[in-house]
UniProtKB/TrEMBL annotation:
It comes from Pseudalkalibacillus berkeleyi. Pfam families: Response_reg. This is Response regulator. SMART domains: REC. Keywords: Phosphoprotein. The modification 4-aspartylphosphate is found at residue 52. Residues 3-119 form the Response regulatory domain.
């Protein structure tokens, strides 16, 4: 079981991902915009942060920048979820400090498998 932050502004997708990950036994905090995500990150410790690229208030890239500048949070694993899936966008995300990129749309099983792979890297 992992502690995961999901920052996604699309409510239906956020609920689908939350339900899927909770069914796998993970503890999930949800943020609907970048500002709320940053608040959660400053207040909690996560095994993984799932970020939408295009969110209100702060983009996923801006959230990554802030996380990487908090010494005790800078090594937190981050996966960007984005419909902006061209190679240039993926490189921008990884250059910004994300550890992983997953293109939308994705299947719940694909997401669960990738998260398990990431979490197992830690052990």
């Amino acid at each position: 079981m992992a502690n995961i932050l999901l920052a996604e502004d699309e409510e239906v997708l956020r609920m689908l991902v939350m339900d899927t990950l909770e069914d796998e036994g993970h503890e999930i905090d949800e943020a609907c915009d970048g500002q709320e995500a940053i608040h959660f990150i400053k207040e909690n410790t996560y095994d993984l942060i799932l970020l939408d690229y295009m969110m209100p208030l702060y983009t996923g890239l801006e959230v990554i920048e802030q996380v990487r500048n908090i010494p005790e949070k800078k090594d937190t694993k981050i996966m960007m979820l984005s419909a902006k899936s061209q190679k240039v966008d993926q490189l921008r995300v990884l250059d910004a400090g994300a550890d992983y990129f997953m293109a939308k749309p994705f299947s719940p099983l694909e997401l669960v498998n990738k998260i398990e792979e990431i979490l197992n890297e830690e052990n």
